[in-house]
Each structure stands twice: as C-alpha cells, then as structure tokens.
C-alpha cells in the first residue's frame, strides 16, 4: 500500500478529481489545475490508509495554497498545497521526508500512483490505486520526443517521466504485481502516455 496517496474529491458529489500526496498531518500536495475553487469544495479520501472493511477516512480541506507562479494556460508550476486536519492514529510514517531537497540531476526510475480511469473509453475512475513504472528523462529529451507544445517548458517547474502504455490519468494496460517504490522522486511529474 501507499498510505501517502490520497484521492482528492468534490466535497458535494464525492467524485474523484485528482490524486494528492500527504506531506504531513497538516498538509497534502496536489496539482494546481485540480483546485480552482474554494477549499470547502474539496475533501481527501485516504483509500490506502484504512484497513480493509473499515470506513475510508474523509478529510476536510481548510485552505488551498496555489503556487504563485502557476500559469493556467501553460500549466507551468502546476502545484498546490492543501491544508488539512485529521487525527491520525499513527503519524510516524508521516514524519519521514517525502520530497527531495532539489530536483537538479534527478534521473532513473520512479513509480507513479493514481486512481485512473478504468478504461480509456469510460470516464469512471477506479476505487483501487494503480501503479506504473516510469523513466525520468531530461527536459531536452522530452522536448525532442514530444515537441514544444506537449513537453514541459524548461522554466516551467516540472520534470518529465515516460513509461510504456502508462500515464497518470488512465488505468494501466497491464497488471503490475509488485510495483517498485519511487527511489528518489516524490514530486509533481508530467507523465505523457507513450509506447517505447
């Protein structure tokens, strides 16, 4: 399980909107484009924190803090903090560092997690968390593969990761029996679907 991964949902309909990562018992991280309304419009479901057959914890969002450099049209700096309040039974796992000190020189393999669509043609998200292996690539390589309209801008505050048949919004095309945990990357990624 990945207890830090949460489902950001509409507070009224409980529909899944985006993934989020718990940073502490007070803050979670998500994409800025996912939180364009007031904080009372959102809740977090901790689908991975609960034990099977227990009620899924539902956490109210009290404040949305969008990166001041976020550009809605280019999605540069597409990151936001959510202030939350939840009485966790055990916070030892939350006290470990989750974000790297710097994104410079990040390379290698990582794993993305999300509640993606069950099928590309049906816009219904899964209640089960999916995982997919990705390779972190340089922004230059990303630009060369994807072109200037899709690749993240060099000054956009993003990184690029690619995987065969995998993206952050769709269910994996194949089942992963033992996903690898991200080695050194736990931050916002732009993850286009690609078949290598």
From TrEMBL:
Keyword Transferase: no
Superkingdom, natural source: Eukaryota
Pfam families in the record: Trypsin
Signal peptide limits: none
Domain Peptidase S1: 1-170
GO BP term, example: proteolysis
PROSITE patterns attached to this UniProt entry: TRYPSIN_DOM, TRYPSIN_HIS
SUPFAM superfamilies: Trypsin-like serine proteases
An MF annotation (GO) of this entry: serine-type endopeptidase activity
Keywords: Disulfide bond, Hydrolase, Membrane, Protease, Transmembrane
Protein family: Belongs to the peptidase S1 family. CLIP subfamily.
Protein name: Putative transmembrane protease serine 9-like protein
Source organism phylogeny: Eukaryota, Metazoa, Ecdysozoa, Arthropoda, Hexapoda
